Amino acid sequence: MTEPSPIRLPWIEPGDAFPSSRRALTDQHGANGLIAASQSLTPEMLEKAYRSGIFPWSGPGEPVLWWTPNPRMVLQVDAFRCRRSLVKTIRQAVERHYELRVDSCFQTILTQCAAPRQSQNGSWITPAIIQNYQKLQERGLSHSLELFDGQRLLGGLYLVSIGQMLFGESMVSLEPNASKICLAMLVQWAKAHGGQFIDCQQQTQHLQFLGAQPMDRERFEAVLTKETEKPGFPWQEHPPRLTLWGE
Q1: Numbers of helices and strands, H then E, in the chain
Q2: Segments of the chain assigned to CATH 3.40.630.70
Q3: Whether the Cβ atoms of residue 38 and residue 55 lie closer than 8 Å to each other
Q4: Cα 212 from Cα 200, distance rounded (Å)
Q5: Is domain 73-228 given the CATH code 3.30.565.10 in the classification?
Q6: What's 245's DSSP letter?
Q7: For 22-80, how does the pLDDT look when each residue is reduced to its tens digit (9 = 90+)?
């Protein structure tokens, strides 16, 4: 019996173009969307990747693996399901004078998101990931939302923001539902400023419960081209704030 040909994954260096998404591996290869690997990671590579619908995801000790899965999980902000229990939780947070902050402890949020969780041996959020997303944050292309009770961090999330396209990366709750409150406020704020889409990358039941749906890669790339060329969100002038749902 003839052995199948080994899969040759493109190896890229800083400054190289990413391969066309048509060259990405599929479910038949057991790696839906894997498109390239690299030894290093730079902010320039990250920005170029996100503009092309590609993101890094690999484990400790592995090379940087780059992905563009098909289909892609995308949350259209109009489809977000803010269920009655979450509306109540948001109202309680407002009544308790919790505060939503932006970029006040970016590194802390990434570090908390990187903490091992049940059934996980490690995290894809490696020190190199933290360092390079911090550089993106310094360029205004990555942000964190944090929920505070006074000076006590309750949870948060971080994301990449290019034009009017938001790319959700990871969430963490140090107290129940804190990250869901942050996501709801992000959705409400993005919608108020003309945003329509939040890329959620991978399909999960949790994301589907919140209203995200699969989108085929061709349509996602068309959305991406259009949304990333629009003027960016007013992160500095009018940042997200904690308000009642619907305000």
Answers
A1: 7, 11
A2: 73-228
A3: no
A4: 8
A5: no
A6: T
A7: 999 999 999 999 999 999 999 999 999 999 999 999 887 889 999 999 999 999 999 99
